[in-house]
Amino acid sequence: MSLRFFVILCLLCGINAGYEEIDLSIIGAVEERPGFWDDKIPELKPHQIVSRLRSSRIVGGWEVKPHSHPYVVFMLSTYGPSTWRCSGSIISSTAILTAAHCPEGSTSSLVVSGVHNVNTIEETQQRRRIPSYDYKIHENYNPHNLQNDIAILFIRSYPITETREVQFVQLPYDYKKELFVGEMVSIVGWGRTCTLCQSSSVLRGSENYVIANEECLPYHTLFSDHQMCIRTEGARGACLGDAGGPYTLSRSGSTDRTAIQIGIHSVIAVGGCEADRPSGAVRLTYFLDWIDSNLKA
C-alpha cells in the first residue's frame, strides 16, 4: 500500500468515523409530525387523510443509479426529542434549497450529501449540522396554506466540498419566462416503496410531465402562479417525505450531473400519492430574485 493511498484512506476513515447510522424505520416524514396539520386550512386536510393511507414515497418509481443525482441531499430536522425527514438540493457550497415547512419550527437540521443508501455510512457522504438561526424561510411563507413554501439553509462553518458524488444543481436563470409545460421532469427521494412497506434506504426516482396550471384547478383551487403543476398519470411521482426535493430537467448540453432545477416538491399532492391526479410544486423561476438576494446577503 502506497503512503499516498494510506493517507487518503485515513482521511476518509476520519471523516466518516463520527457518523451515526440512520434508521429510516423510525423516522417519519416531517408532515407526519404530530400537530403539523392542526393549523392547516381544511382544503389541505383531505391530502393528509389520503396520504396516511397511501404512505409517503416516490410512487411507481425505480432505484436510480448511485450518485446520478449528486445535487440531492437527505435532511433530518429535529423538533425537541423527535426527528423527521425531508430532502433538498445543493445550490452552493454553503446553501441548501428546500421547502419552508421542512425546517420550520425545528431546532436544527442534519444535511447529508453524497448519499445513495441512507442506511449505510458511505465514504462519499458529507454531513453538516445546521442550527435554526441559519435558516432563511421566505418572508411570505404561509404555514396555513403552504404558499411560498421555500427556504434556504446556510452552512456557515464547514462548507460542502464538491466531488464527483457531490455537486451543485443549476438554477433556471436562463429560463425565467418559461413555464416548462409539456416537458419531462425528474423527481427523486427516499420513501416507501409500497403502501405498507418501510421507507426505501436507496434513492428512487420517477419522471413526470409538467402541465398547465389550469389542469390543477379542478382538483386544487389554491393553486397560484408561483406553483407548478405536475401530471401523475400511472400513479407515479412524489409524495409526503419527498418534500423539499428538486424537480429537475435536462436541456441541450446538460446531463443528469448538471441538471436544471425548476421546482421544489411541496406537500401539495392532490388526492394522495397513488391517486391519478395532478400534484403541485414550488415554481423556482418565481423565486430566483429572492434566492439571489439571500445568497448575497
Briefly, what CATH class of the largest domain? Mainly Beta
| Average predicted local confidence, pLDDT | 80
Sheet of most strands: 8 strands, mixed
CATH topology of the largest domain: Thrombin, subunit H
GO biological process, one term: proteolysis
Protein name: Peptidase S1 domain-containing protein
Family: Belongs to the peptidase S1 family. CLIP subfamily.
InterPro entries: CLIP_Serine_Protease, Peptidase_S1_PA, Peptidase_S1_PA_chymotrypsin, Peptidase_S1A, Trypsin_dom, TRYPSIN_HIS
Can you walk me through this structure?
With 297 residues, the chain is of the alpha+beta class. The protein folds into two domains: 19-54 and 70-167 and 290-296, Thrombin, subunit H; 173-286, Trypsin-like serine proteases (Thrombin, subunit H, Beta Barrel), CATH 2.40.10.10. The chain contains three helices and 15 strands. The strands form two sheets. Strands 1, 3, 4, 5, 6, 7, 8 and 9 form an eight-stranded mixed β-sheet that branches. Residues 1-15 and 49-57 have low confidence and may be disordered. Residues 1-17 form the signal peptide.
